[in-house]
Amino acid sequence: MMADLQNFKDALAMDACGMTAAEAWAKGICIDCKEPALPKCHTEDGRGEYRISAMCEECFDEACKEPVACGDMFWDADDPEKAEESPEEILRDDYAPEHIAEFQQATRLPNFFGFYLQATDGTGEKIDEEQFHFFETKEEAEAALKKLTTRTKVGG
Asked: Is there a single domain that holds both residue 136 and residue 97?
């Protein structure tokens, strides 16, 4: 049973790194970057990890970093350099109220459109509350914006 587990680990290492951990240890190199391992192990924990995984501390730390949650990032379609965690942040930071913006998400979802309105009280004074609206098409966004911003005059 233990031999099967070791064979599995060796096959996995060969597939991922081109060598087994035993081969890396015998050469004194990191299984990942193929450089001398001990100079890149800066702490006792790092040296201990090398004895377990055959990865130097620098490579192990890099492999264990928090992944970037690309699926949770949004881009302004007009400015791909501008990325935020929510489309509301992009609208609030970059656009005046009632501007329709197109958004892309890191995942392969279709683009979508949105705008925000600055809420006002009964006297027309702006209040802190903002209303964000999102739609699948630009036409839907335009129609909703027109409906929300059209004022009916009372008493004509």
From this structure: yes
